[in-house]
């Protein structure tokens, strides 16, 4: 077989393989654990597995891409019935960070726990302070909620307070302080119905961007904020549309930001470092699953957690939960366009090969004659 024909067949094989990969079904991971009701999830790039918390247990579990569940952390020294909410992996320090909270009628408790990923021992448990200007007893708001956490390259953790609408900072040694009470966090009106059970849920999902700032979403206003990781100054990101009850947030390597709610996964991008942004696509989610967290997993795929948290809050029992890959329809369309472009190039290459072969045969005939 000629080198040209071999190259052509190789090109066609690549195109067909790419087409099959794009057309494949989204990855669905079913996993089982009695009454787990996980609200938070993160991805461990080193171990190549997901990590989930629990509404009801003092445990943190790992979940493989095949749905195999193992106990990663079981910390019986924590207060009984404490909830494990936001999670993140500190890849630089090889630590797992977990937001801890106790819901009413339990005594107030908000903390950040750090665990060594190699030994699985707890490194510190940092109690998170209330705002002295607006104590928990104030009629202006209810008790604090340590909801989600992000970490920078120095090991500093940033924790959102959903009720207090401020951000805590916990340094790598476990020293906690109130980091940002930016006026922007309380500037915008509540967009939710006053009877909604999450009406008072403010700052929620948070992610650290390597350029030295944080992106934070606020559930009851639908806003996103850009927060300076040095001084805590914040300003709203101007979007082409507000999101409804945004919860978790994650960022892909290409700069695309993913924001999840119980009903939607939004895809956002920015050309100016998140002074402004565009919601360029959204995907409907299974409302019954009540998605609360989104992560970027292997091969930059987006996964949402169906933890069925509302069932857990109402006291129902459940064993099965899901982690599901979610794709952007618009990005899939763009990928299909590229496939057709590659097919077109392949066909053009084939015609060129046929032309070359025809010329070769004619030249040989001339020499023979």
UniProtKB/TrEMBL annotation:
<keyword id="KW-0812">Transmembrane</keyword>
<protein>
    <recommendedName>
        <fullName>SMP-30/Gluconolactonase/LRE-like region domain-containing protein</fullName>
    </recommendedName>
</protein>
<keyword id="KW-0732">Signal</keyword>
<feature type="transmembrane region" description="Helical">
    <location>
        <begin position="337"/>
        <end position="355"/>
    </location>
</feature>
<keyword id="KW-1133">Transmembrane helix</keyword>
<feature type="signal peptide">
    <location>
        <begin position="1"/>
        <end position="23"/>
    </location>
</feature>
<dbReference type="InterPro" id="IPR053224">
    <property type="entry name" value="Sensory_adhesion_molecule"/>
</dbReference>
<dbReference type="InterPro" id="IPR011042">
    <property type="entry name" value="6-blade_b-propeller_TolB-like"/>
</dbReference>
<keyword id="KW-0472">Membrane</keyword>
